[in-house]
Every structure is written in C-alpha cells, then in structure tokens.
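Lab notebook, design round three. We kept the backbone fixed and only want residue identities now. Task for the bench partner: fill in a sequence for the structure below.
Input structure tokens:
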C-alpha cells in the first residue's frame, strides 16, 4: 500500500468494513482533488459544497460528492478534459478506478463525472480486513461523483487552502460566507428533503459565519425563489427560512442525515421550534 494512503487511513478510527468504506471514499475524494489541482483545474473553478466543508473546515459528517463552480460562466467548459489527470493521480497511489463523464440532457449548466471501483477489492487491498467480508455485496462499488456548475451566480468570494496528502496541493474554494450562501440556497431551492443541508446550516451558525447575501440573492434569482426588485436583506432571508422550516419534516431530516454522522445525539433537539428560533442568529 502507498505510504501516504496508509497515513491517511490512520486518521480514522475504523472498527468495521463500513468505517473503512467511508474512509476510503474520503481518501479517493482527496486524491481526486490533488489530481484536479495538478491539472490546473483550480485556475478556472472553485470547490464548494459539503465535502469542501468536510475537508477544509472539519465538518463532522461524511459527504458523498465533490461539487465545484466555475469562477465565471463558460458554456464551452469541459470537465472531461481534466479527468485523465485525476485518473493518473488515483493510479499513482493504487486506485485503479473507472471514470466516466456525463452531461445532463437536455444540455444544461451542470456537468458530472463518476469515479467507481469495486468496494470489496478496495477493502482487501487497502485495509487489514480479510475475507470473508460480511454485509457488503460482491457487486458493491465505491462511487464518487464530481459535479460542476458552468453557469454560477455572481458574487462568490474565494480563498486558497493547502492540503498535503496524498500529495501536496492547493485548492481554490469558496470562502466560508459564500459556502454558507450556497447552503442556504440549497435549503430554499431544493425540491426534495436533504437532512444534510440542515446539519450544515447548524454547523455554520455554531461558528457565527456570516452570509454572503449578494451571492445568495443572485442564486435565488437564478432559480426563481427571489423575484423582488429590492435587494435581498437579512430580514427577507429570515422570512424565507421561517416559511421553509414550517413546511419541513424534521424527523425525516434527522433520518436522512443520521447515516453520515457518528454521534446521532447531535440531532436530539432538532424540531421546528429549534430551527425557527435559529434565524435570529443570521448575520
């Protein structure tokens, strides 16, 4: 096993096959980021979403996908141009992954790619687990999705952060207020319930992160949740969230996020009352 991968695995307190599966998935994510950086991807794009929060801000939940946004709209951008470098970076530390790209039909601003490899093969190659491995079907795959918005709303601000494993690299990502704005947009615009959105929302509030209102307003205008001629103000955002929280099934939200966190006691107080009161903390 590559020594850097062994070092990365040692950061996790893995007790069973599922723990190792989550750990390997995150290591694959970080290796893919290293490959993207080496290919010059972050000259045109920035890292966003829950995995950015997990890797660079220590969000205490697992995250599945790698989400990105171009710095400027560019309909001719091709994510697949960067995939060979990602594949090479993964192979350099022992991951022989299948990589496929996908464009949504009809053609839209979102481009996706998928990294896949057989779960059992990865567990047996990179962990101390020995066969037979129970609870994981022979056909199971570890799957990581890369997704980029080629028509991002204006107003994001950025920062650069370094990581040193599996190889040193620097990634450009949205700064914390801009990341918070994208999460609030997801809460307000998403057509289905995703408990992880609400978990991340609490994470930002606990750290007194302010909101990049310009970015949030532009995102909401892009998707139709804010059509007023006046700029979006904090009191407008508070009312939008109050309306959303009143319509949210927080028991279902807890059930959705529970598999992604180690301590479900964090969710004990989740309720309409808690989230309704939380809007006072927005700044």
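Proposed sequence:
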């Amino acid at each position: 096993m590559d020594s850097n991968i062994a070092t990365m695995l040692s950061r996790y307190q893995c007790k069973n096959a599922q723990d190792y599966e989550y750990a390997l998935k995150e290591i694959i994510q970080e290796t893919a980021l290293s490959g993207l950086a080496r290919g010059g991807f972050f000259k045109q794009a920035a890292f966003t979403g829950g995995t950015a929060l997990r890797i660079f801000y220590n969000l205490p939940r697992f995250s599945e996908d790698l989400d990105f946004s171009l710095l400027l709209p560019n309909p001719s951008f091709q994510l697949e141009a960067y995939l060979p470098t990602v594949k090479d970076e993964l192979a350099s530390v022992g991951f022989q992954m299948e990589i496929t790209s996908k464009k949504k039909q009809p053609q839209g601003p979102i481009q996706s790619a998928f990294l896949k490899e057989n779960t059992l093969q990865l567990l047996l190659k990179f962990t101390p687990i020995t066969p037979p491995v129970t609870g994981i079907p022979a056909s199971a795959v570890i799957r990581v999705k890369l997704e980029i918005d080629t028509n991002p709303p204006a107003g994001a601000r950025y920062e650069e952060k370094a990581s040193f494993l599996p190889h040193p690299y620097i990634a450009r990502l949205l700064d914390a207020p801009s990341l918070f704005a994208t999460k609030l947009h997801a809460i307000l615009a998403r057509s289905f319930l995703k408990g992880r959105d609400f978990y991340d929302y609490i994470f930002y509030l606990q750290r007194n992160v302010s909101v990049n209102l310009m970015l949030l307003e532009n995102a909401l205008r892009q998707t139709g949740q804010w059509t007023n001629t006046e700029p979006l103000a904090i009191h407008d955002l508070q009312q939008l969230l109050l309306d959303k929280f009143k319509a949210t099934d927080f028991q279902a939200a807890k059930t959705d996020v529970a598999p992604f966190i180690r301590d479900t006691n964090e969710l004990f107080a989740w309720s309409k009352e808690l989230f309704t009161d939380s809007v006072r903390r927005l700044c």
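Keep this in mind before ordering anything: Strands lie at 45-48, 66-70, 98-103, 110-118, 141-149, 158-163, 169-174.
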